[in-house]
Structures are given as structure tokens and as C-alpha cells.
Specification:
- Helix content is 29%, strand content 21%.
- The chain has 112 residues and is α+β, with helices and mostly antiparallel strands.
- The chain has a two-stranded antiparallel ribbon with strand order 1-2. The protein has a two-stranded antiparallel sheet with strand order 3-4.
- A hairpin with a 5-residue loop joins strand 3 and strand 4.
- The longest helix has 20 residues.
Length: 112
């Protein structure tokens, strides 16, 4: 086992603790969307590490980048009938329509 600082502690301290808070917020958002849509989501943390300068080998600069994949609900779909001339109709043009009328039942009148 090595005595290096645990990764979780390093992440918690980056950006004065703001990175940890931001990751918490983002993972919460993804988890809620996954539960709602039943689709896969992800949170990716990338840490770019560069030398602070070329004169000293000790200080390094760490730049975090967070990438989210938040699943979305499928859009609502409609079924329409198309005609040869490109028109879209709500009802099937080949289906005959019945001239139906609503009537009140006698039983309904007795209950009132």
C-alpha cells in the first residue's frame, strides 16, 4: 500500500471544493433522468495535468472537465395518414365514418 494522498481527497479539494459539489449536483441530475427514462446516462470527469512552468518540476496545474450524458425521454409520436399529394390527415381517408349520436340513457335520467 502506498502513502499517497487518496484520489477522492484530491478531487474533494480541487477548485476549493467546488468540483466535488459540482460533481454531486451533476450525478444527481443524471441519476434522476436515468430513473425517469430507464435509459443509460453517464458522468465523465477528465483531469488535465500540466506542468505549471518548465523551470520547476514540482508544481503541476490540474484542469477538470466534466462531461454529462443525460438521457432524455422519447418525444411524443403521432400517427397520421398521408395522401398521394403529400397531405397529412388525422383520420384514415379509406375508413368510412358512421353518423353516431350521443343519447342520454333512461337509467341516467332516473339517477338524477
Amino acid at each position: 500500500m502506498n502513502d499517497n494522498t487518496p484520489f477522492s481527497r484530491t478531487v474533494a479539494e480541487l477548485s476549493k471544493g467546488c468540483l466535488d459539489a459540482e460533481l454531486t449536483e451533476k450525478i444527481t441530475k443524471v441519476v434522476k433522468a436515468v430513473r425517469k427514462t430507464k435509459k443509460t446516462g453517464s458522468v465523465t470527469l477528465q483531469l488535465k495535468i500540466n506542468m505549471l512552468n518548465t523551470e520547476d518540476e514540482d508544481p503541476v496545474k490540474i484542469t477538470p472537465a466534466i462531461k454529462l450524458v443525460v438521457p432524455e425521454e422519447d418525444p411524443m409520436q403521432d400517427v397520421l395518414w398521408s395522401t398521394e399529394d403529400g397531405d397529412l390527415l388525422k383520420n384514415d381517408p379509406d375508413q368510412r365514418e358512421l353518423d353516431l349520436q350521443t343519447i342520454e340513457s333512461r337509467m341516467f335520467k332516473r339517477l338524477n
